[in-house]
Amino acid sequence: MADGPRSDGRNILLVEDDRTWLRIARRAWDDAWCVVEAETVEAGSALLDCRIRFAAGLIDIQLPDGDGCEVIGKMHAANPRTPIAIWTAHSNGEALAVAAFLGIEYIFKGNSLRPFARRVAIDLHVDDAGTQRHIAAFVGKYNLTSRQSEIVSLVTLDRTDAEIAVTLGIAVRTVKNQGQLIADRCGLSLREIGHALRSSVRETARGGGHRLP
User: Fold this and answer.
1) Which of 10, 36, 159, 196 suits a disulfide with 163, CB 3.0-4.6 Å?
2) Are the C-beta atoms of residues 156 and 126 closer than 8 Å to each other?
3) Whether the Cβ atoms of residue 155 and residue 178 lie closer than 8 Å to each other
4) Would strands 11-15 and 34-38 be described as parallel, antiparallel, or unpaired?
5) Domains of the chain
């Protein structure tokens, strides 16, 4: 995990007052990300006023000084495209209504955070919603990590290993090693995955079926 907020936007706003759940949430993102923590509504709101680029927010709603929905509303107003998830141990009618109205996720504590982490990793690089859905389906099918999800996203955009390394701030060797791990899971090289996903997106756009590699 990064030591401080990153300039490339790989920052997650985590607003949670329970130390056990904080530790659990940190494990959803690998060391390419910085999880910026706050334990109160006031602290979470203050972080949004800082010059930190957040890729996503994971926010509890029952906080010592109020309702986490206040932080959610502020974050969504700043950038409606930022992925946000309400993270709670309880069903809350008002929070469910907020989630439905804003189109954000509602995750119960105890459920895996990995699907949300993968979505954030994909959204950081891919703007097209159709392409995002195809990549998300693929990385979910093979249960890839957030870093592997980023690599698949960039391969789908036809980036070379060197370009991926520069974008992610890692060595080309790391890209190749992660690519081999992905290939071991799905039986395709990174280039074959990128080609297959681009073909699947085009086929779907023409009204064909959605076929994952």
Assistant:
1) 159
2) yes
3) no
4) parallel
5) 11-111 (3.40.50.2300), 119-205 (no CATH)
